[in-house]
Specification:
The protein has 6 helices and 7 strands, in the order E-E-H-E-H-H-E-E-H-E-H-E-H. With about 170 residues, it is an alpha+beta fold. It has a 5-stranded mixed sheet with strand order 3-4-5-6-7. The chain has a two-stranded antiparallel ribbon with strand order 1-2. The longest helix is centred in the C-terminal third of the chain and has 16 residues. The structure holds acetyl coenzyme *A (ACO).
């Protein structure tokens, strides 16, 4: 859906680091996820990460509208190629705590780069842009969980090992 002929973006594009935008390969762009990205392959990109399942367009729009109502908390970015196809996606969720004087913590989640587009530094640019959004929002730290085989990637993005992830699945 277009609003005044402009795409309906999750949040203000000005929050995206200009340095990251300028560092992308020619023809690629980074922007907030848009309501009409459903048809640009964003769910297929996420399938390189894990199970996505079947999500109807109306379910997608419901989710987008929920995020948009909370768009000082959910920041999802996409990178598109020269055909405006989504080739990378990732989120930072900003949590409001009581500790650290009601401090904010950024949680990086659900990072995925299309299989055919990996190795072009798109993942690194995405993490840099999401980290900058967290920092600019006032977070005192940004954290994420990943598997051992991705540790070296996140180290290249400036992250260091800290703690252990635990989970209980339902
Ligand atoms: N192991 C070691 N080094 C790596 C890895 C890896 N798995 N992946 C990338 N790198 C290195 C690259 O070689 C590059 O190094 P260089 O600067 O010396 O050349 C640097 O990290 C940056 O790599 P990018 O090209 O930016 O990586 P890419 O665009 O391929 O994205 C990503 C990496 C996101 C892990 C991608 O491969 C992917 O989508 N994988 C499948 C889904 C996944 O595992 N997502 C992360 C889950 S964790 C989470 O969501 C919080």
């Amino acid at each position: 859906m277009l609003v005044n002929n402009l795409p309906d973006l999750l949040f203000d594009s000005q929050l995206i680091s200009e340095e990251v935008s300028n560092a992308l390969p020619e023809g690629y762009a980074i922007r907030p996820i848009a309501r009409d990205d459903y048809s640009r392959g964003v769910l297929d990109v996420l399938r390189v990460l894990t199970t996505v399942g079947e999500i109807s367009q109306s379910r997608w729009e419901e989710q987008f509208d929920y995020w948009k109502k909370h768009n000082d908390q959910y920041y999802t970015l996409v990178i598109t190629d020269k055909n405006e196809k989504v080739v990378a996606v990732g989120t930072i969720l900003v949590e409001r705590k009581l500790i650290h004087e009601c401090g904010l913590v950024g949680h990086i989640e659900d990072i995925a780069v299309d299989k055919n587009q990996q190795g072009k530094k798109l993942g690194l640019r995405l993490i840099n842009a999401l980290t900058a959004i967290g920092k600019d929002a006032g977070a005192y730290k940004v954290i994420l969980d990943c598997s051992d085989h991705n540790v070296a990637f996140y180290e290249k993005c400036g992250y260091v090992r800290a703690g252990v992830e635990m989970s209980l699945k339902f």
